[in-house]
Amino acid sequence: MGPIGRGESRSDAVTRLLALLDQAAERRADLIVYPELALSTFFPRWYTDELGGHDHYYERSMPGPETQVLFDTAKEYGIGVHLGYAELTDDGHRYNSAILVDGAGNEVGIYRKVHIPGHENNEPWRPFQHLERRYFEESNEGFPVWRAFGGLVGMAICNDRRWPETYREMGLQGVELIMIGYNTPLHYAPDPAQNPLQSFHNHLCMQAGAYQNGAWVIGVAKGGTEEGVESLAQSAIIAPSGQIVAQAVTTGDELIVADCDLDWCGQYKNTLFDFARYRRPEMYGRIT
Ligand code: CDV
Known about the structure:
This protein is of the alpha/beta class. It has helices at residues 10-26, 68-77, 132-135, 164-171, 198-213, 264-269, 275-278, and strands at residues 31-33, 80-88, 94-101, 107-112, 145-148, 151-157, 177-182, 216-221, 224-226, 229-231, 236-238, 244-247. The protein is globular and about 55 Å long. The structure holds 3-methyl-2-ureido-butyric acid.
């Protein structure tokens, strides 16, 4: 996806998601993967004393009144949906979440972001804020995998993709396809020396995660310049070999498609990365 402006409503965003879904149907896709926080601008870039004043950015149910049409249309097409959104639970918890439904419209699972980057308090020295740690709690639910789309699938969100443990947790459960939405500003205020490496680091970690676990990785950006903040695009579909088989070439709304043969995973999981045969957990005591 390209940027979503502060003035764009949830319904405006859904209209754009529907346009991509129509294209996905024309391409006979089984699953469409949308990015992190796909229904609004990246609101954690603004400080607020009153979290409640930002409740309109959160979803109290999923599907909700404005998003139902997306799930209904996907069900008509027989396409599964992965959608990132801000979740406000009935008991008042705020998570950076993603939902996955299958092609029959059944919920497969909800993932809540484990690694929450950024900061809690206003830091005016930054050109823009990254207040995810103010707006969201860290989830304690870890990285489950689910049986869907003919295989074992898992989810992670943005900063999670940089951590080897994210992939390994799912890899140890046999994951075959991992969906990851992201919003990654090109400017990293704590260490701007990393700015020119954003694109490299993005693909480096996802390609390594795919290869080292014999799994497909679908990395999906909300990129482009949003409210003056330039964010990384370069959504990519990465094979279990670690190779990028499809990549976005624009910073706007764009569909990329690949034929993700889950049997390809076995080529790696049953040979070089045969965990049961070759892995040495007793040698990794500090981690295990
Ligand atoms: N949305 C994110 O999690 N963004 C982080 C930035 C802040 C470093 C990322 O890891 O891309």
